[in-house]
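Researcher: Here's the sequence for the chain we discussed earlier.
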Amino acid sequence: MIDALLRHLELDERPAADAAGLAVVHRRFLERVSYDGLTAQLGEHTPLEADRLVERLLATGRGGYCFEINTVLAALLEGLGFEVERREGVVDAREAFAGGAPTNHQALVVRAAGEAFICDAGWGEGFLEPLALAPGTSSRGSLEWVVERTQDGGWWVQQHMWGSTPGFRFGDEVVATSVYEPHHVRLATTPDSSFVQTLVVQKPLDDRIVTLRARTLSEKGPDVDVKRVLDEEAFAQALTETFNINLDAARVARLWNNARAQHDAFTRSASSPGSAGPSPAPPASA
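Model: Thanks. This is the structure I predict for it:
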């Protein structure tokens, strides 16, 4: 499994289980594997089993949303000799965690040669290099993330101004993957989940965030802010060429039908009398 994943990431050798090796794997993983909420759109919820999710990734390029994609990333890192700790997290406003907001994120703390890092492929707008698990600011060009220790003993990771989510919080308690299962079911299947309501695929780059939300492909960063509504052919092309996702024609057609219906509903809502034209809701988890 590990060697197959490394081939998918186009890594010829196993990186060393140190900080430099972790940075290589993390960046390459986010470059090659996009974040997506397609499980909910396709109605194909399955348990968080690493082998099963890796098989899907290798066959289709699909990473999934946070519970799924970070399960794969954690399995890869553990297979390479890193120590991985899973933590319960909340992607939301800073106050939401203390206010009892339900878990919607699988946060990963990875230890490498005595150093601790925050790793994450499941925040679709996130960082390409691991963040040190210590208070401080990390920058990539004009993009910036702030890590802070919270008064209740947890951690807050603050997003830069070009993201659609403000950040995420997580605690110090190490948990098993099974802890996320009920939250995984909720986000993947319930009608009020934004993953069920709106198709989303994302990929962070060095200078921007690329997002497909319903039919709209956007790029947003310090020097770019563009949106384009896609037709059916461009939609299918974006999945393959922009996000490295290769699905069979029947699944692409289902996703397109969902995206078109969601876009039409949003357009009607935005143009209704008295509407201020709200934006589609961001994903329920990064």
